[in-house]
Write a structure and sequence with these properties.
Layout (H helix, E strand, L loop, with lengths): L14 E3 L6 H10 L4 E3 L7 H14 L9 E6 L6 H15 L4 E6 L5 H16 L3 E7 L3 H10 L6 E5 L7 H9 L3 E5 L11 H10 L3 H11 L2 E5 L4 H8 L8 H7 L19
Parallel strand pairs: 1-2, 1-8, 2-3, 3-4, 4-5, 5-6, 6-7, 7-8
Pfam families: Aldo_ket_red
Protein name: Xylose and arabinose reductase
Keywords: Oxidoreductase
Length: about 270
């Protein structure tokens, strides 16, 4: 990786997502103050500029943290897929964040078979040019990744997918592990829909942690970077607490048996696209 060794280096770390946040600046700043160094945005979220402003201000006020230690992720939406559109989208994002390069760019989904590979070609070239530091994909299943293999292009550094203890995506996990692709998990907290699971509550009581902290820790222990989001500053504090404890191997193994292929929003599940 070209990023600082203190930034994303293929090892799991906690991330903070900013989808639909109303006060993104304050929430990102709070997350950074708690040790989170991965901020997950997208062009379609319309808050890249606000995220970068919070990052810059945090680094300015925290002299021991360098900008290269923080990763701001953005994503190419379906409407901007294709070689030329992707290139143009990146240049627009650069202007929004007012930096010479972007930390990490993902293709947001594999919706357009005829365009997604051209978008990937663009990202590969943009990385060669030093305009993007690291590149990846989102919502890619094994067959989508195999398409990149068949094209003889470099594989992505990252695949961001919906993943939790209730949707473990074992096949994708194994494929990515075997091909050196790091995993990020969005909706690792199931958008709150499984936080009252009795098994999860039992583990939370055992470790004296919240159900959310247990689910986030599960990902971290499996070398997956979980991305959580919250409007509430106290909830950001709470979730950041997943970084300061560990779970034993027996409990982690038990959690791997909870898989029920749970999808938080069945109406938007691009990983199943052809």
């Amino acid at each position: 990786m070209n990023l600082s060794k203190d930034a994303f280096d293929g090892h799991s770390q906690l991330g903070f997502g900013v989808y639909l946040l109303k006060d993104c600046y304050k929430q990102v700043y709070t997350a950074l103050s708690l040790g989170i160094r991965l901020i997950d945005s997208a062009i379609s979220y319309r808050n890249e500029r606000e995220c970068e402003r919070a990052i810059q201000d945090f680094c300015r006020n925290s002299l021991d943290v360098k900008r290269d230690e923080i990763i701001l992720v953005t994503k190419i939406p379906d409407s901007m897929q294709g070689f030329e559109r992707t290139w143009k989208a990146i240049l627009q994002s650069l202007r929004r964040v007012d930096r010479p390069f972007l930390d990490m760019v993902l293709i947001h989904s594999p919706k357009w078979p005829e365009r997604r590979l051209e978008s990937w070609r663009a990202l590969v070239e943009l990385k060669k040019e030093g305009i993007v530091r690291e590149i990846g994909v989102s919502n890619y299943n094994v067959h989508h990744l195999e398409e990149i293999v068949a094209s003889k292009l470099p594989l992505p550094a990252v695949n961001q997918i919906e993943l939790s203890a209730f949707n473990s995506r074992i096949e994708i996990q194994e494929y990515c592990s075997n091909h050196g692709i790091s995993l990020m998990a969005f909706s690792p907290l199931t958008i709150g829909q499984r936080l009252d699971d009795v098994r999860l509550l039992d583990l939370a009581a055992k470790y004296k942690r919240t159900p959310s902290q247990i689910l986030l820790r599960y990902c971290l222990e499996r070398n997956i970077s979980p991305i959580f989001k919250s409007e509430k500053l106290d909830r950001i504090h709470e979730n950041a607490g997943c970084m300061d404890f560990q779970m034993n191997s027996q409990d982690l193994a038990w959690m791997t048996t909870w898989d029920e292929e749970f999808v938080s929003k069945p109406s938007w599940n691009p990983i199943i696209l052809p």
